Amino acid sequence: MKIPKEDGENTDRIMGKGQVQLDPQALQDRDWQRTVIAMNGIEVKLSVKFTSREFSLKRMPSRKQTGVFGVKIAVVTKRERSKVPYIVRQCVEEIERRGMEEVGIYRVSGVATDIQALKAAFDVNNKDVSVMMSEMDVNAIAGTLKLYFRELPEPLFTDEFYPNFAEGIALSDPVAKESCMLNLLLSLPEANLLTFLFLLDHLKRVAEKETVNKMSLHNLATVFGPTLLRPSEKESKLPANPSQPISMTDSWSLEVMSQVQVLLYFLQLEAIPAPDSKRQSILFSTEV
């Protein structure tokens, strides 16, 4: 509820809290379950339906060539004549302007209607998008950035290299692991690589404010790992002959853990070395 303050601004006031007990049987039911939550004289009517993570988080192929959401990153950067998509630069800039000390930035969900409004504005190249962003809660902007990466038709780390990253992060020899992971990273297409490095630097700056925003490198890797690495078609990365039977849920959890560890590895590196002068000129160019 909005309450007017003396200075004319509005502030939010919590009028009631409630919770709903989820029935395990609902996990087997494909229909919507309707329920009512009573709290402090207020009744909230809800419709709830369970969707497995395997399907709700799966990347869907897109034939879209207009807009930016669901469009290949190389198509967007070529159209924009940029090295890093405009949407990524704008969201990062706004978050660094006023969201670096926001508790739970990137973890706390933004308002869904605000995120969808920003998505629509970026898709039609709305010139007023920067004004919209300045007036929205910073968590909605963080949510828009995450949604962009989640809706890419293939992950930023690409479907081609994803299995190799999963294998590389499992290496026990630290020297072999570093060589493998860096070579794989620098093999990514240019638009993917530059966008990742741009995002990586930003996330490191966010983690520098961990004492205030409570977002450590591990927390950020947990949020962004699956978003950046989850493949278009889900493939199991489990051992061919596991010693113990592994359920679908365990399989999914192990794969997510691997995705988190890959991103955490790069977040913890002090620098990404460039193997040749050409790559170095691309990596350290300030023109994005």
Describe this structure in words.
48% of the residues lie in helices and 7% in strands. The chain is mainly alpha-helical. It has a single domain (62-232, 251-282), classed as Rho GTPase activation protein (Phosphatidylinositol 3-kinase, Chain A), CATH 1.10.555. The strands form two sheets. A two-stranded antiparallel sheet has the order 1-2. Helix 4 (112-123) packs across helix 6. One of its GO terms (molecular function) is GTPase activator activity. One of its GO terms (biological process) is signal transduction.
Write the layout of secondary structure elements.
Elements lengths: L1 E3 L5 E3 L20 E7 L2 E7 L4 H4 L16 H8 L5 H13 L13 H12 L5 H6 L3 H13 L11 H7 L5 H12 L4 H18 L2 H4 L3 H13 L18 H21 L8 H7 L5
Antiparallel strand pairs: 1-2, 3-4
Number of spatially distinct domains: 1
Structural class: mainly alpha
CATH topology: Phosphatidylinositol 3-kinase, Chain A
Task: Give the second-level CATH assignment, the architecture.
Answer: Orthogonal Bundle
Q: Could you tell me the radius of gyration in angstroms? A: 21 Å
Report helical residue fraction.
Answer: 40-55%
Please provide the ordered H/E string of secondary-structure elements. EEEEHHHHHHHHHHHHH
Q: What is the count of β-strands? A: 4
Going across the biggest sheet, name each strand in turn: 1-2
Number of helices: 13
**Would you identify the CATH H-level superfamily?**
Rho GTPase activation protein
Separation of the first and last Cα atoms = 42 Å
Sheet with the most strands, sense and barrel status: 2 strands, antiparallel
User: Which residue ranges are poorly predicted, with pLDDT under 50 across at least 5 consecutive positions?
Assistant: 235-242, 275-286
CATH class call: Mainly Alpha
Strand content: 5-15%
The global form is globular
